[in-house]
Amino acid sequence: MKKNIFKSIILLLAVTSLTSCLKDDSLVLDPAKGHNVIEFANPAQIAVNGTPSPLYVFSYDAASTPTLPITISYSGPEAVAPQDITVKFTVGSQAKIDEYNTATSNHYVMLKPASYTLSTNEVVIKAGTSKATFNIALKPSTFDFAVSEVLPLTITSASSGIISGNFSTILLNLGAKNKFDGVYTYYALHEAPDRPTFLTGTEFKYPNDVELRTSGAAKNNLYNTYYGDFLIPLFTSTGGTSGFGQTNLLLEFDPATNKVISASNAITAATNGRKMNLDLTANNYFDPATHNVYVTYFMTQPGFSPFKITARLVYKGSR
User: Fold this and answer.
1) Residue 209, class by beta-carbon neighbours within 10 Å (0-12 exposed, 13-18 middle, 19+ buried)?
2) Which residues form the BT-3987-like N-terminal domain (predicted)?
3) Could you give the C-alpha distances from 316 to 209, 211, 258, 289, in angstroms and in order?
């Protein structure tokens, strides 16, 4: 009998201990037991997760004068702020950009003050609400096409509440797009008589999109979305998807006439010696009515005859 009583006591203690542990875990995981924080709401999809500060990418037509709304949020288990909360913020430091560059091996630089105007440096999250928004007026025509520019914003103070540790600073990567920029379907005719392994003599449609990415006022690089790189699309002898190594097709346009005036390999130090040259006898142009691009060029490589590519880029939309 004593043994049975003793066993019952042990079982009861074990159950009590287990219940206590579950209660402790539930307290840790229960969001209702947390605290609200003052933070920047996500203005877009974060470019890369796990970075020191979140970075968001925005691209605008060079001739436009857009306004970018940015929201500061009272986030957490409480649905609304219990009182008015005044939040002050400022343009962040170069150190935040440097920190991001180090973590991601990038080369972002600070956006010039002449390229933007903040509508204010403080907002009030009203009692009974959870958000407040301000605007950034942008001047894409003043963006530097040669570099990747970032506007960092940092919350400096809040009259009440806790400032977020993760989203108190955000980085806005702001770029301009010229009129040739966009997402395209890629069609190409390959002519390479000394390379029979490649499909030649027939125009083929590449199964994945390509992009013309702005790299200057009238310059664009061909980006291959299949590889996530700038490889020129290639079709194998069996119709497979491939790409030419160490290639980055750079097209330059005449914005006045819409003619393609040059084609080159942006990888100037390609170890295989590949270069691109425009076929000056072809009609190379951008059609402003359809937004399509037509270009014929030669890819040369030591030891091979010139490889002729006649490409037709059919516009799908903006990127």
Assistant:
1) middle
2) 60-160
3) 9, 10, 19, 13
pLDDT band at 200, cuts 50/70/90?
low
Q: Which class is domain 182-317?
A: mainly beta
Q: Kindly report, as residue ranges, where domains of CATH 2.40.128.420 are found in the chain.
A: 182-317
In angstroms, how far is CA 270 from the centroid of its own chain? 26
- The tokens 């920047």 sit on which residue? 40
Structure token digits, residue 285: 């142009």
**What's this model's pTM, rounded to 2 decimal places?**
0.70
**61 Cα distance to chain centroid:** 16
| 23-39 confidence digits (pLDDT tens) | 223 223 334 447 999 99
Question: Do 173 and 97 touch, CB atoms closer than 8 A?
Answer: no
Q: Render pLDDT for 154-176 as a digit per residue (tens, 0 to 9).
A: 999 999 999 999 999 999 999 99
Place of tokens 């105007």: 117
Q: Where in the chain is the domain with CATH 2.60.40.1740?
A: 37-177
Closest CA relative to residue 54, chosen from 164, 214, 215, 176 = 164
Return the residue matching tokens 């609304």.
Answer: 80
Nearest to 188 by CA among 213, 216, 222, 214: 222
Is the CA virtual torsion 44, 49, 54, 58 positive or negative?
negative
User: Please, are residues 151 and 191 in contact by the beta-carbon 8 Å criterion?
Assistant: no
Maximum CA extent, the chain:
106
Cα–Cα separations (whole angstroms), residue 60 to 106, 184, 254, 302 = 21, 18, 20, 40
Backbone phi, then psi, for 76, in 5-degree steps? 145, -160
User: How much is the average pLDDT of 76-92?
Assistant: 97
Looking at the domain covering 37-177, what would its CATH class be? Answer: mainly beta
